[in-house]
Amino acid sequence: MWRTGGTSTPAGPSTRGSHQQDALSFDEWLRQQVEAEPYWFQRMELRPGLDTPGWSNPAREKLPYFGLPDRLDGMRVLDIGCAEGFFAFEAERRGAREVIAIDSFPDSIRRFNICRAALGSKAIAYLCNVYDVTPRAFGTFDLVMFFGVLYHLRNPLLALERINAICTGSLLLQTLSAELPGSPDVPHARFYPSGMESGPKDKPLFDPTVFWVPNVACVTGMVRSVGFVDVEGRADRNVSCVLRARAASTAPGKAPDQRTAPWS
Hints:
The protein is an alpha/beta fold.
């Protein structure tokens, strides 16, 4: 059948071969990028037969416990402490209309972008600290994911205040926690001035960025104190402490006005 209004070139063997070569070249490039990184935290499948060699498998070890809704259709989502981006990409897969991710480590952002290219994602990662997140610079969000970050912060209450300012929907939080024997209802946090041993169970490393390890009552109290409501925190033997909460005043997440945010 002839096409009108233009010309068409059949996809003959040479064209198909070229496409196959292009795809193969990208896969080769991708594998080289993955192998060139000296460290990976999250293990993710980027292509059949190609996983990032992270020591943490969030799909198996974290996702079933963190309370992420099955569908996030139409939501504007923020992933704080994104690492290589597993939860940002998962939110996108579940229908989020826009996903913003932040991390304070340049290497994490570089690895995120490798994964982003591999997965064809539209999620965007910024090199940014949680203390810098403001409505003017980042807008507001229907869902904020705050996983594995709280205990790394010198000023966790300040961080939660910043999060409360940009969350107009729900907060999902996970953190390392430690219960006070015999007093689970007493808010308590242990301070580590020099860090603590962390990392893979079979090969732990010393992590100087661990400062506060609270109990569930303390985490719940902190989240309430900055203005969140319907706060539900619980201890979980698989992932330590998980919590969900809601903004006191809810509204659809909104992107910032790029004519004024954040520098003018």
